[in-house]
Design brief:
The complex is a heterohexamer, with 3 copies of chain A (about 425 residues) and 3 copies of chain B (about 110 residues). With about 425 residues, chain A is mainly α. In chain A, about 70% of the residues lie in helices and about 0% in strands. Chain B has a single domain, classed as 2-Layer Sandwich (Alpha-Beta Plaits), CATH 3.30.70.120. In chain B, the strands form 2 sheets. In chain B, strands 2-5-1-6 form a 4-stranded antiparallel β-sheet, covered by helices on one side. Chain B is elongated. Classes of the chains: A mainly alpha (about 425), B alpha+beta (about 110). Chains in contact: A-B, A-C, A-E, A-F, B-C, B-D, B-F, C-D, C-E, D-E, D-F, E-F. Bound molecules: adenosine-5'-diphosphate (ADP) (3 copies).
Chain lengths: ~425, ~110, ~110, ~110, ~425, ~425
């Protein structure tokens, strides 16, 4: 995404023509048009990222039981709202401190709130406006929290989840992100994470892991040490969700080029689509081999896995590498789901396998498939981001647990969070066996 | 008066209805049910976790008839529901003390039809 | 022959099934039901309008057994369903005149199992 | 003891409940059902194909009562459910041998209420 | 949106270069590119507005009972079709009469049908083509009708609704709209409604109010004078709908800049997103305080309320004002729903609280938060538009009621409109208690 | 879509300025901006085409019974993945052989895999990059297969369907497409199919017909020679699907202009929207007249019919012609559904009536309504494409039938494909009468 130094390069590059413009009153339509089209694509990209929140809402609620559906929808509706607001208050300023580093290149802060710099909009960085920058980055911010939402579903208290989200998006996500995208020490090391396999997906995945460990498995998930199928109530919804995520990912990855540069963006899109397709095929095959029958929800996870996997390197690997990254992701996610189940780590939607495992894999893959980047640097990045985000998430969840408790009562869990936390079912009137 | 209750395979509902209509039994109440019996269940697989399911989908019929119609009703159900496979279902005949038509308040044998 | 009917809490279905299986009662029919009893309902809230709901989700079991199995069936249901909370449910035992296995046409005591 | 079973029009459930409550009958179990009777069905049309549907939505009530309450129960149901249109439904009264409250193990007449 | 005078300004501005172009045969790629990108954004904006129709369909059907679901989907599918066609026939010509005013600056008509003016496409107004103009405006047109659809759901006759929609979109919406966006008297007064808090949402909301008053509440809504919960059958669907509306609103507001101007559009998008987020938070809190539990459907209404609220001033208020506008909207909508329920005004989806209340609030907010515009003018606009659109809608519904009846029979309402009006259920085979 | 010769014309046109650029080091922002905006629109168009796959998934699963829902979702998720991958391997090279024709202008092949030509991206064709080209064409490729998916639903084996799709998309679709869009003999004849009424929709429709004929009707569809209503389980889902298809069609048709040319694209969009709207209205009326009640699923089919109908001529007919084409399509599809039912051709979703009938109608309509094109040529194109694609599809299905069987067993069909092929239901816990 945004590299600190590109910023300066561009700025210098633009300084000259800007002077020229001042000299001559004739409007430079070409420059303006280029600015408009770059800005437009980043804005549209942000909208596509926005629709991913609906994707998450559908996948997570579809893979949960009907009795908890309203609760999940509620969480997923509030997540982008809280994320965007808290990012406006200070997240954006922590993630992109510009020159305001406070502690080494580890922590910076550019000041509270949003402040559009004076002067012509094009002067901001020549590619898009300050508002577009915030709009795009703000949409990204909440996705990390949404990833947690699915993993802790069906047993976390609504209030605890909302608190966690607010804190995590306000502080942890931007802090860690600033190391790379904000021009911090990982960026100096030449660590590459194009659109966020690490800075978004792993950051979310590690928090999910912390949450799951502190919450424990859902009632009924393990009977005599054996994992039981607690079936998602609506496969149509889950499929709609995955397609919307896939669709939104074109913006997530494509607009992370931060311009409409035809050569880069189009390659990114092709790589994104190929990785997702390859992962679908490999997840289908892995599912068929390992489970006997092609499982829809696992195959859908495969698609997301491929998307997460290609996110770090979509701009710098070849199409063949993209296919390989996708194929590996599809297998990885299938094995991941089976493995986590065996480890008594109860993740209703497969968030760990998708976002954590494949986030790490995708980041490392950059070091493997792109000659420009080193595997070791990528490893350092993954380790540093992972330990800090896991630690912070664990700390936050732990504190919330001690202070208010994070898990609903047993009766609530059995009756369903919808009735107890919201007083209303998701599908009133429909008859279903609620013992499932 | 008897209340005939039957649990049958869902896809046999239409043939049973037709067999009963052929015997001039037109009044039936139907409920969705699950049944657990000798019939083998199936393996439910979801995200790698598997479970033997032995509650299978069935349809429950309840038919109130006068005593002289009991045998015809049983015959009709058997004709429509039998496939000679395990799981075809059961018929239970319960004694019934009284039957009332809500609309008219009629009681007993006339109320049934 | 008796038809044992029970209304239990939905989440007790599995324990009840296990308790019955332990007593070698394998044949059960299950239906979704709503029950209204002494158990307190809950308040349904929707867009500011609220309503006391007193029809709560229950599961209905129907088990046809020979007379000598009635007590075991009742025991099994109680073992699996009792939580000592209001709303645990009821068991009703009805006399049954006849039982027919659709597949074979067998009648009476053999047909039940 | 008797088990009163009634099939009524779905939209009459609330009036029936109120009429029963007014008679101090508070314990009811309700099931979703489909009924086929004298009431005319409707024509289901889908993509040009049409079919006469004669299984209409009904609600099934099951109420266990002591013998002296049977008439009141019937009265209550009729009061709540009667609209004088075909399809109002039927009430069946079955003899019941035993009734057990799962929570306490009480049996017989006390267990019913 | 489109101001009559901007049109002329632009035209003059473009006249000179156009002459130049004629003189020199070298193509001006810069001008062409700028034209293309502006035009592109308006076209994409129109597509986003289109998807709002799906949003409305999902929200309205999700918040209705299962037995009326097909009927609502049917209405919402026909609405954009009828709206777009009737707008092509004469609505567009009434709304944008250009110089063809017939009665003062109150009513004008530019002629039947669509007529692409001859000459190069860029000459139309230098920003987008004639067809793009119509495409965007036509998409807007039907949204006003769709608002009515939800409010009168579950009891209006299909035929009456379709008649009403056709008349309202053909005549009333464009007539009222011409006063502001078409260069009429409200525009002269310097009344500001950027993207339609008044011209779209209030216009729809007032019609909804007229419809509800003439129809009366649904059977079972009031028992002994107390409002009963007639629960929507599908919260997932309602949530999908709200997210799609939110998504589409980026086009609704963003493309109402009528160009891809980076500075304006990006600010509009940020304001839109902030207002929606703030309204979600305040509606959640208001719901929790007033109702005891956070109600999903009310919170979703909050989101829409914030979007309606910011629509009038998204281009001219600060981000802080946008947040305040959103916060107020969220509280307003919650109180509105409770109030209308108390007044025996039965609005199954909360359309009045969302579109009418917040439409009015958003329009007034422009006068409060933007120094450029006067509160009094805004009030005049709201009052004028409100009285005419309410009066007209009441008249149309009243006439239809007298002529054909507008409400289905009691049996139809009890059995459900799906079975009686369409002969088919929305979810055949699924079991649900139909007494609800 | 892409005409071989335009390609060359453009290339020549660009050669001169390209030389100029080399001479002067000053970047030509105007040219770059124009390139970016054209490229951007084609990329966005491809994303819109992508979302059509979700539309197909929703329509097809919504119009099928609940017991087969997972299976359909599975097929529709795999279809774009397989389509895109196989198109990368060789489909793209068959469809656009450039000068590598092997057999007359009938069959060409440009080589395995994807190869971005060296040199600046703009040199590819001045409008968009090589990757954008592939991204857009690859998205198109799988839509033809998806059409088949719905028609053969509820009875085809998963493995057979996937095999068929892979073969059909890899060979047949691109081969036939190369005749027109790849610069083959139909292009030479001046046959016009703007966005694929023939090359996509008929090609899919003919394959669907072949599949249906070899599979036979679903169990229970015909009782005593009378067609029975086997009701789709979820009208909400079907409606969501149609709206998404409608939305995606703006990209399907709009981006088939292969540039963001304001004049052309905006006319195409208006025509597309008008045809769909008109078809909705005529299908509603036809449904009401022929069936007595307005059927939602038939009216939805009407919308798609109008979209298919306008696809061939959206760029070259007047708005009035677009409306007429739409009106006819709406009637055609209604009669088609009734007719195919009478002919014992069991098509659960109406794919034949929508894609085949209206695909043919739309192609012929170009010859009728556009003075530039001849009806006879259009007829030749339809006949040639139809016979080859029907023949090929029949051959493939026939071979698969002989080799592995293409239809599931009777028990599987009765129990539902979800339980047997995937071991899991789509809506676990929900109660529904499964005898339907
Ligand atoms: N004793 C019983 N009590 C209640 N339901 C029974 C009983 N026996 C059979 N059923 C019902 O009948 C269905 C079919 O019984 P099953 O034993 O599987 O086949 P069969 O009767 O052909 O041997 C069961 O699924 C169950 O619903
Ligand atoms: N007399 C009755 N007739 C029908 N159903 C009953 C009767 N009594 C109890 N039930 C069923 O049993 C359920 C539990 O009864 P309830 O009175 O709530 O608890 P408990 O039996 O523990 O006192 C009710 O919801 C209802 O479904
Ligand atoms: N003999 C019967 N056995 C079982 N159910 C019956 C019987 N007679 C009526 N019913 C139930 O009662 C409902 C109403 O009966 P119907 O004949 O339509 O009306 P009415 O009783 O008013 O003449 C039916 O739909 C069915 O559910």
């Amino acid at each position: 995404m945004k590299f600190f130094f590109t910023f300066f390069v561009m700025f210098c590059f633009l300084a000259a023509p800007a002077a020229e413009i001042a000299a001559t009153p004739a409007p430079d339509f070409g420059r303006e048009a280029l600015f408009s089209v770059n800005n437009l694509w980043v804005m549209i990209g942000a909208m596509l990222v926005f629709i991913m929140h609906l994707g998450f809402a559908c996948v997570e609620s579809g893979l949960a039981r009907a009795k908890n559906c309203t609760n999940i929808l509620f969480k997923n509706t509030m997540t982008p709202a809280i994320g965007f607001l808290s990012y406006a208050i200070c997240g954006f300023a922590i993630m992109y401190p510009n020159s305001h580093w406070l502690i080494g290149h580890l922590f910076g802060f550019a000041g509270w709130g949003l402040h559009n710099p004076p002067g012509p909009a094009i002067a901001y960085n020549g590619m898009y406006t300050y508002w577009t920058d915030f709009f795009f980055q703000g949409m990204f911010a909440a996705t990390a929290a949404t990833i947690v939402s699915g993993a802790v579903a069906e047993r976390i208290k609504l209030s605890s989840y909302l608190c966690f989200t607010a804190i995590y998006v306000t502080v942890v996500y931007p802090l860690v992100g600033s190391w790379g995208w904000g021009g911090g020490w990982l960026n100096t090391l030449h660590f590459h994470d194009f659109a966020g396999s690490t800075f978004v997906h792993s950051v979310g995945g590690f928090a999910a892991l912390a949450g799951i460990l502190l919450l424990g498995p859902r009632i009924g998930k393990y009977v005599d040490g054996k994992a039981m199928p607690l079936m998602g109530h609506n496969m149509s919804q889950a499929t709609i969700g995955v397609f919307l995520l896939w669709f939104g990912w074109f913006g997530f990855n494509g607009a992370s080029a931060l311009s409409a540069n035809p050569a880069i963006v189009s390659l990114v899109l092709v790589n994104t689509m190929l990785a997702a397709s390859a992962a679908l095929v490999s997840a289908m095959c892995a599912g068929k081999l390992l489970l006997g029958k092609p499982d829809l929800s696992m195959t859908l996870n495969g698609c997301l896995a491929g998307l997460v996997g290609i996110t770090a390197g979509a701009d710098c690997v070849s199409v063949l590498s993209a296919i390989i990254i996708g194929l590996v992701s599809g297998v990885l996610v299938t094995c991941g789901v089976l493995l986590f189940d065996k480890l008594f780590i109860d993740d209703p939607v497969g968030a760990l396998s998708v976002h954590l495992l494949c986030g790490v894999w995708g980041t490392l893959a950059v070091g493997i498939f792109s000659p420009e980047y080193k595997l070791l640097t990528q490893l350092i990045g993954v380790a540093a981001v992972g330990s800090v985000s896991f630690g912070a998430a664990y700390g936050i969840f732990f504190a919330l647990k001690k202070l208010f408790g994070i898990r609903v009562s047993e009766t609530t869990e059995l009756k369903g969070l919808d009735l107890v936390e919201h007083g209303a079912e998701a599908y009133p009137g429909f008859q279903f066996f609620s013992n499932m | 008066m008897k209340l005939v209750i039957a649990y049958i395979q869902p896809e046999r509902l239409n043939p049973v209805k037709q067999a009963l209509f052929a015997r001039e039994i037109y009044k039936i109440s139907v409920t969705n049910a699950l049944g657990c019996g000798r019939q083998q269940g199936y393996v439910k697989a979801y995200r790698g976790a598997i479970q033997e399911v032995n509650l299978l989908k069935k349809v429950r019929l309840a038919i109130a008839v006068n005593d002289e119609f009991v045998e015809q009703t049983i015959e009709g159900i058997i004709e429509g529901a039998r496939t000679n496979h395990i799981g075809d279902g059961k018929i239970f005949v319960l004694p019934m003390d009284e039957c009332i038509r809500i609309r008219t308040g009629e009681r007993g044998n006339e109320a049934i039809g």
